[in-house]
Amino acid sequence: MNDFAQIPGYVSAKDEHGETTVVVDRAHVREACTYARDELGFAMLIDVVATDYLDWSAKGVSGYIGTATGRDLNMPMTQGLQASPDAKPSRFSVSYHLLALRQGAPRLRLQTWLEDGQPVDSVISVWPAADWFEREQYDLMGIRFDGHPNLARLLMEEDWEGHPLRKDYPIGGEPVRFSPEE
Amino acid sequence: MSATLSHVGRARRWPFVGEPVYEGSRIPPRVPTVLDVPAELTESDDILQVNFGPNHPSTHGVLRLIVDLDGETVVGISAVVGYLHTGFEKNMEQKTWWKGITYPERIDYVGYQNNELVFVLAIEKMLALEVPEKATWMRMLLCELNRIHSHLVYLGTSALELGAISMFWYCFRERETILDLFELVAGQRMHTRYFQAGGIAEDIPMGFYPEARKFVDRMPVALNDYLTLLDRNKIWLERTQGVGLLSADDAIALGQTGPVLRASGVDWDLRRDSPYLAYEQVDFRVPVYTGGDVYDRYRVRMDEMAESTQIVRQCLDKLERMEGEPWISDDRKVVLPPREELHTSMESLIHHFKIVTEGYRVPAGEVYVAVESPRGESGCYVVSDGGPRPWRVHFRAPSFAALQATATCSQGTLIADLIAIVGSLDAVMGDTDR
User: Fold this and answer.
1) Which domain holds residue A108?
2) Number of domains in chain B
3) Are the Cβ atoms of A132 and B379 closer than 8 angstroms?
4) Considering CB atoms only, which of B21, B128, B377 is closest to A128?
5) Domain containing B212: what range?
6) Helices B165-186 & B133-161, crossing angle to 10 degrees?
7) Last residue of a domain, one of B330, B364, B397
């Protein structure tokens, strides 16, 4: 964990399911990625993924099976426990999954949090692989990546409206024209 | 770890956009996936822009390439994807966890077992579910069969595109045998949905082992046939050797994984370097070639088929001694109760009803699981809010990453070689577009 505290813009780190997540400040994403690549040896950007946490835990999830320490089938009370997941700091998270090509295949998830409309620095200059990864997240989730030289829609049509993977995007909400007028 | 790995794994310091990514790199400087026509050529009227696809027999689905040609030389290229985007990730958010297992198979419709596996492993990781040994070995066996199947499809279609039509029939002959094995196990030739969270859906049927043994004995002979047909075929060699070059550093910078990475000289395979299932208990070799061309990608896949056959053989040896062992976890909160219990046990009926209607609940959290699919690192990022449906599912598609290398690989090649290059990246468009 000590290594990770040196990452520029470091906010917090956690270890869950054997995976390390380091949360960094939105303004320092590019520096953090450069540091992870050059100093920590994470040579490869495996994936960029954004998640929309709109209304996260708002409904309250009941009947969630398990405790913080895990599930115990012989303990009836660990089933059907009322629990709400921890609140999230902002609406969107953007996670960068990094991989180091060395013994043990260490992985790191750099994560940053942002509100709707806030941009993140593009890391295309750190890893060229970020090109389509960022375009996909822009297209489907509406995250703007500043400094991306070609931030256009990738999977949806060029004139598509909205970002389908957002939680407030209606399902089956494709606009239908009922009259010939444009 | 080999010496190559420590060398290429070293982080490089790359400058920012607008300059060459680093000295000696072939990655286009402005946008890594778009090859721009050089300024001195844009002035001339000789540049012909050709639109390849999305409906073109040799683009393996609906890949569209916009190619700028100077004579027959490719001077500019950009790939357009998205024609097969079907919103799997959004769909999966609306389904319960166990219903979602059918989706990943259809994302990469050639490497379906591996994609199914990665999602199931993600669920199991969040649930901290123990999987019986028999299920683990059976999963491994099917994933390796699926790898052979996928490479056969690659080999058959790639050779077909370069004129070796008979290869297609030979490859599909063995592929048919594999599909028959899948049908024997799961009742489906493709998209088997045989993996469940906790194990496999049914016990291994009688008669599977002898049939699989027949295939394992047959496959080395078949591989020899392919080598005889292709490896001394002058046309094949001239069309593939030295074509579509990708250096090790470029491959790493572009996030390449799997056979494409290994053909560029990077000794990296998740099955060995980050073992899942029971891969640390089987013997296999990771083929690595250093040419980084279409030919070496073909060689990597050929060697992998031989290695996978050996893994299947070892799985069969192990599984044949596991007769009568459980094939799925006994966790009744996640796993459907045995069919016969529904007639006699009230609790089983309730569990069955709850799992089928409401679905099981997965503790809140986020995980990323990766497996070595036939095309490279297939990853699944899952967020759960503790409910019966995933909050967010995202697939790291190896084909998506592979197609990012199109521009780098096709610099300065001839238009005819473009077909060989795109084929050698072995992208499945379902996987790319999701």
Assistant:
1) 1-53+89-167
2) 2
3) no
4) B21
5) 131-330
6) 160
7) B330
**How many angstroms from the chain centroid is the CA of residue B95?**
24
> How far is Cα B141 from Cα B126, in angstroms, rounded to an integer?
24
Give burial (CB, 10 Å; 0-12/13-18/19+) of A149: middle
pTM of this prediction?
Answer: 0.88
Overall domain count for chain A: 1
Report yes or no: B2 at the A interface, CB cutoff 8 Å. no
- Please tell me the distance from the alpha carbon of residue B204 to that of residue B340, in angstroms, as a whole number: 18
Cα–Cα distance measured from residue A32 to residue B241, given in angstroms and rounded to the nearest whole number: 40
B94 located within any domain: no
A139 phi and psi, to 5 degrees? Answer: -65, -50
Question: Could you read off the pLDDT of B117-141 as tens digits, one per residue?
Answer: 999 999 999 988 889 999 999 999 9
pLDDT of residue A86: 75
Q: Is B402 on the interface with A (CB under 8 A)?
A: no
In whole angstroms, give the CA distance from residue B319 to residue B321: 5
Distance CA(B256)–CA(B273), nearest Å, equals: 16
Rounded Cα gap, residues A146 and A123, in angstroms: 9
* Domain-embedded: residue B427: yes
Q: What is the distance between the alpha carbons of residues B373 and B383, in angstroms, rounded to a whole number?
A: 22
Within-domain flag for A177: no
pLDDT at residue B53 tops 90: no
Euclidean distance between CA atoms A145 and B185, whole angstroms: 46
